Amino acid sequence: MSALPRPNRGTARPTAAVPRAGLVQYALGSAGMGIYVTVPGLLLLYFLTDTLGVPPWLAGLALLVPKVVDVVLHPFVGSVSDRDRARNGNRVRVLAAGCLLAVAFTATFAVPGSAAADPYLAAGWVAVWFVVGNTLFAAYQVPYLATPTDVDVGYDERTRIMSFRMVVLTLGILVGGALAPLLVGDGSGVSGYVVMALCLGAFMLIFQAVGVGGVRSLARAGTAPGGAAEGRAAEDGAAAGAVPPARAALAQAWSVLRANRSFRVLAGSYLLVSTTTHLVLAGLPYFAEYALGRPGLTTVLVGSFVAPALVATPVWFRISRTLGKQRCLLAAQWAFVLGSLGMLAGARTGLAVVVLATLVLGVSFAGLQLFPFSMVPDTVRAAGTGEVDRAGAYTGVWTATEAVGSAAGPYLYSAALAAGGFAATRAGEQVAQTAGAHTAVLLGFTVLPAALMVLSVLAQRRYLLDSDARGRPEHPATDPGAAPGTPREA
């Protein structure tokens, strides 16, 4: 890996820190999001293949097809939230609608007996409610993540905001990942999954409601200047009932990708990161049961994967103040490659190596979540104040990228299982898997994610903004040497 230029501290104008109380309240909203990010990714594929008897190829499609909707849905929600901000000064209206997510989350697992008896009906039930859940999740996630771009802060402060969010998100992931398998129990069938969804859904709802108040607080911390004219135009359009249709949302998505090279490169790399991390999450129950022969280890492995982020996130933040986000992100990506290959070795040598490799994955996972999300506002701010006024559109594209990755990862793993001849079962059934199926479980969980993360590294190396982002004025449209809407690349 060739050396990257050292980030320039430069002379960027100082910006005030966001008050800690408002920042904590904002970050707490991520606890509920962590549940939805984790539990379907961890258990839904396994629920389909090993409880409902859905063949792996069909189970993968049932999780992939609903995410296709997100390609249009997330940019659309982003455009709506931009109009909401122009009219009300914040994005709370759309955000509040997303608090109904717990209902759809529970319904996804509450497959009725008549549907559970038929693999195709079961897959259809899960897919339909998964679409509803993803829609409500987008309504919450997109305006929530767009809010830090609205706040008038600098390079390191944006990382600080996201580091608070990442710590709380990690707690949500840890709660979901550790408790969900315990609440489900062994061989409990659909009823165990319903109990799990009800308990974690209540947790989700409480913290989402707290996050709504946090967005209000963060918005009051100060919004980006220079958008009054665009805001009035958006408000006039909204007042006239001009809600952008799906076609307009796609056009907006294409517009931000075409106009902002730094954002385009970052999103392309993160698509591979999201695919890889969600593949590993979906594969954990299979790895624990079929590669290690200890299904009860799922909770331990999830804890080992997620818990290090509680310590690693503040450390990553401090290191990034010296080295910059890009260097740290590349280090996290390479660490994930090593951790994945370590899991392969651990499956053959013993549990101690598996746990150590999982800890390495957890430390890298913290960086993989912290830095890309804190770099998105950098790319938007560097493009000019006109782009800040459509931060929701950027966030819509970003979260759509993440959503596609969250579906592509389990789908790729299900495809590996299908290629290896993995046999689906219903709750309580015992089926001897073939040697090919065991090989697919292992290589799909280790070698495949390592290869995907290497591709992500190659894509991320094309990101050039970070080398001078810290020295750039926060509003480049006022810089005589910067063209509006065009980020200056190093």
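[next item in queue]
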Amino acid sequence: MHSARYVEYNFSPSEAWAAYNFTGWREGMADRSMSHDPVITPRKGRNLFILDVAVPLADLPEMPAGLSLTAVVEEETGRKSYWALTHGSPDKPDFHDPACFAATLAAPEVP
């Protein structure tokens, strides 16, 4: 399920986005073509922030796939924090570390 190849999607509250294919750990980075732009909807509550993102199923990698959910949060003061399901290295954030791919995205069920 976990292979050397992986896909990276970056989504921002500004609704900017990027998608990349990698052939290996931080190797072979190339733009990933998408059938159309993801739909990005930022929502701000009183004490929370939600970023909804809709990506066409056809633009996702083959499933099942290892999954790493990560976030870089920059506060108004400029302070940054790095969030992940798990961090591969205790020394510095590296969202490309294979250890970060701690979850599995299953293929959709077709009735």
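[queue empty]
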